[in-house]
Amino acid sequence: MRKNTTFRTAKIASSPLKKYHPAPLVRFFVAELSESHMSVTRKFLDWNQPALPAAVNYLLSEYTVLGAADLSNVITVVPGRRAGRRLLELLIEAADRQYVRLTPPIIDTAGRLPEQLYESHKSFATPLVNKFAWTAALRRLDDSVIRSIIPDPPADNDISRWVAFGELLWNQHRELAAEGLDFQDVIERGSEVSAFDESERWAVLSEIQATCLKMLDDLELWDLQSARLFAIRHQECQIDKDIVLIGTADLNLATRQMLDQVSDRVTALIHAPQRMSRRFDGYGCISPDAWNGVPVEIASEQFVVVDGPADQATAVLDTLADYEGRYRIDEVTVG
Prior knowledge:
Layout (H helix, E strand, L loop, with lengths): L2 E9 L13 E10 L6 E4 L6 H13 E2 L2 E3 L3 E5 L2 H17 L3 E3 L2 E4 L13 E2 L2 H13 L3 H4 L12 H20 L4 H8 L8 H20 L2 E2 L1 H10 L8 E5 L6 H8 L5 E5 L17 H4 L17 H14 L13
Parallel strand pairs: 3-12, 5-7, 6-8, 6-11, 9-10, 11-12
Antiparallel strand pairs: 1-2, 4-5
């Protein structure tokens, strides 16, 4: 089994409260990724047709037997809910055209997929409960300890500011957990980075994190991100269904680690020709470095030069009008 060591840059402050955060930018060791012998299966789709119709063609061809397409044992994973609704519409239309009896798949988003891969033993804390739990854990610290991470803490009766700090810590917890880390991991792995000198303050954050999770546990509640980390670290991920990734161009590290544990049931559909396989990673996600410097062929007549924002908006409307209704609204991207 071959191992790769991966480094990632994590932004630690991204809110108006960033001046209170222990470090504005920390580059730290994220994880050591292992390539399993049972890797995710990648399938390349013809990009001369839109991605969702191409995915529908794959699903029906792969799962249709004797005039019936039973996808009840399939989880299709799409980037968002709108794509999921459109996928279902296209499946129904294609099955009707082909006179195929369709049993639709489970359609989920990448953000919700992890909960399909492990068993939850407790109810999850709501966002509101999480914010208050982090706030309460922060306020339990001695004043001198609080000042080590918040030089100018709020007054005792300034509840809104305390909750804002609690929410900031909760958001940081979520960002790190998405990369398979908790606050203690930052302390342990940050020592590998010469510029890292925030161990003491991260130790305070780790204490707050432990207190918060203990409070939730006392309430018989589970923190969603911590539950995922527990499942990853204890190899609890399992699935008795096929997973088909459709257009999931970017998956966080925690999701990838969970998919590694069920990789024999996972297929990633990549909307590109096989000759571009090196521009996508083992999960079907875009490899940014491989796309740097790739020329985008846009003819000069495709450019429209205008004077200002109002003219730009008018030009967009004119372009949409020129389509004369050939495309659905969800087939057009304005960006």
